[in-house]
Amino acid sequence: MSIQTSLATGDPVAAVAAPEIPAVASRGYWGSVLRRLVRDPVAMAAACVILAIVLAAIFAPLIAPMDPFKGSMVRRLRHVGDATYWLGSDELGRDMLTRLLYAGRLSLFMGVLPVVIAFFVGSGLGILAGYAGGWVNTLIMRVVDVFFAFPSVLLAIALSGALGAGILNSIVSLTVVFVPQITRVAESVTVQIRNRDYVEAARVSGANPFTVVRVQVLGNVLGPVFVYATSLISVSMILASGLSFLGLGVKPPEPEWGLMLNTLRTAIYVNPVVAALPGVMIFITSISFNLLSDGLRSAMEVRQ
Amino acid sequence: MTDLDPRDRGGPAQPLLTVDGLVKHFPGKGGFLGKGPAVRAVDGVDFSVMKGETLGVVGESGCGKSTTARLLMQIARQDRGDIVFDGELLGSRALDLKAYRRQVQMVFQDSYASLNPRLTVEESVAFGPKAHGLSAAAALSRAHDLLRRVGLEPRRFGGRYPHEVSGGQRQRVNIARALALEPRLLILDEAVSALDKSVEAQVLNLLTDLKQEFGLTYIFISHDLNVVRFMSDRVMVMYLGRIAEIGPADAILGAPRHPYTAALLASQPSTDPEARLEEAPLTGDPPNPINPPPGCRFHTRCRFAAEVCRTREPGLDPVAAAHFAACHMASPGSGHPDAPPVPMAA
Amino acid sequence: MNAPLRNPEAAADDALIEVRGLTVDFLGGRKAVRAVGGVDLSIRAGEALALLGESGSGKSVTLRALMRLLPESRTRIAGHLRVDGHDVLALKRKALSAYRGGTVAMIFQDPGLALDPVYRIGDQIAEAVMRHEGVSRAAGRARALELFERVHIPSPARRLDAYPHELSGGMRQRAMIALALACRPKVLLADEPTTALDATVQIQILLLLRELQRDLGLAVIFVTHDVGVAVQVADRVAVMYGGHLVEVGASGDVIGAPAHPYTQGLLASRITPDSPKGVRLPTIPGSPPDLADPPPGCPFEPRCAFAVPACREGLPASLAAGPSHAARCIRLGVPAA
User: Fold this and answer.
1) Best interface-test mutation with B: which of A24, A189, A193, A197 has the largest number of B CBs within 10 A?
2) How would CATH label the architecture of B8-86+186-192+221-268+280-330?
3) What's the average model confidence in pLDDT over C103-118?
């Protein structure tokens, strides 16, 4: 039950909302971005889907019809549309609907938290490298390059394997996977912004570098990096599910979409629809995050 | 002309700015290991700007005028050469970079790129004073004063974002921002070039007024010779990183002594249909500053080029009162067939 | 009463380009923006017209409408556009692509819009000739060489094998002109092609365009904001303001004796070598109209020193200011022929 308590403190909603902090920096610009985003039907539909999934995960104890852990050996692998088990039951006779709702908590948490941490760490490193230039840049970016030598899936598996199975270790290894990617984006955006006339004008006004970065650079860099980070949430969810599937992440009997996919794989010939349900959830959630991220990008691009 | 600035040190006879032997080469790209021949953007430039005057700088792309401006602002550091501001060497104990930058400011060509899109107009203007220790409220009220001074009602425009004002208004904001630190020297790098003609006239009038009011000294960089002639007391013509000619505006643009200045003047399209040009004064593009020609850098495009021009680089020699030209034809005894005779030894 | 603004010398039947009541609206915003508010224009073969105006005057939009280059989903073009017998607004896909390049070609301020950075310039020109005229690659290459000689590119055979970025600014502009001429168009549309160039290079390109216009009998519409450039390339000048053509005439008449207060203000605020130093420059007060919410009558009325209540009652008719000179200003009195 230790997982239940950690879930209660690490509220997934807070984690989702956290990256929106830069929105406060300049209301006028972000206000217009929001207005354009609201007018984008695809992005809005994706946002609604995400919101529904998040709410369903939070209120799982209230809306789930059954106990996620209580199984029944006689009612195993019921089909979708069953009178008692609306979305069928799994290989241990647990209600799929209940488990899918509960699993959203861990899956979202593991999809979002590594990206949030990596967003802050990577942006900091990238802005430092991009603005300072010189040997600082060389040092940070060459280290980043080393991480890029490994495919991200392989890196996540290797790190999780080395650290050992478990939720915390999965989050650490996923964060390590994403930090170099975000650092690289933040660095390239910072280098571009740094050479803009307004940053040069701020520099020649005699302001210290910290002030120049805070006022002139930060808001312009965090926007594009934030968009990139939202697109990583789907990757993170899939990787987290993959780790669980391989037994490196969440341990049974905790419900988690990736893990459910793993344990149900034996039932693929008996009840393929039920076996595929966790995969469908992963698919819907990650594609929604991607569509929202795309919408956000186009809403931020227009300057009129 | 104006009240004596309390920061003035050497009196009106001492130049506000003196530049000595300024050199900036940018490392070239391409070639083995990514190192090609250097771009010789500024290649030995000396000039001075007197207090309260406007020095116009003209020249084509690659002549080094923008690099010179960036060196003067210390956005880029020179490879060699000294900058002396009101008698103090930049970088000496008496004049550190921060103190220098408070007195020298710049207005860029692209009014949009030089304002942070995420800051309101008043925030952009208040940024400099705030960075120099003024309280937020004091900086904002200073920004409002300056916006009003450049013709933008702060209550109407202060809270707007750069994309919400017109190009001419944006350039006024940039001027207010540059003035916010009370500089003594303002570098205007093609500051009106991107504006429509009717707006350009408004901004030029504003610049003239501000110069009087704040006792400013201008370095006015432009490719438009008519605007430079209108604004400047003295004019400096640059070609491929060197000074071709420098002197009083009316002399340079009225009776140029360097064939390049003459060609630049002749290239301006006339508004008189009867006076249309039938032949281009110069052929070809300006050569690349990566490999400037030997001898006089202009000899490849000069119709008067003689043997001496291909081999020996002309010095910047006096041709009239306060008027200097780097041309063998203006230098007695240079060996050019059209050079004036050497005056008899006294 | 509302006589179209046209060159009285050019009868409608010998006009190569005939524009009547052209309006262009940009959709997509909260309110449609009327970028061009009813332009009438006729140009004969071999004639060069300069379209003079400031940013937002509608000069470039008018030019792009003639080439149907405006994004179809976000613009609404109405009016009558006839170029060399083609009803431009009715052209279907295939006919449109033959019309572009074959009848009308365009050159831009940025050669990057016309030249593909990853192909050799000679191949691009040969490709265009092959596609339009159905000839062999060798014939296309031969034509490309001929065109490079035509636009005075030194050592043309070698330059054909260059990529756009390997050429200097002036050479790229010449190469773009060569590409525009590849399919022997009758009309050349030029959208500020010399604005980004250095003065000594600009004059070379202007002279080249005039030479080509004369030798090839091209009709040229040259969009510019620079009065000197307009006079250098064109015999006739049309001044645009706020989406309307406010004055048209022989360049000597329009520049020497402007009839419209906007043209007068524009010329007065120009700095010339004779502008006295230290004297304030005359300026036009205010700023150009908001095209989403234009003034009801004359577009210049809010800024005009001569405005009277009648100016607000509708767009002034085009009135004669001289034998080949007309302007939309009620102060002129007599309707243009």
Assistant:
1) A197
2) 3-Layer(aba) Sandwich (3.40)
3) 87
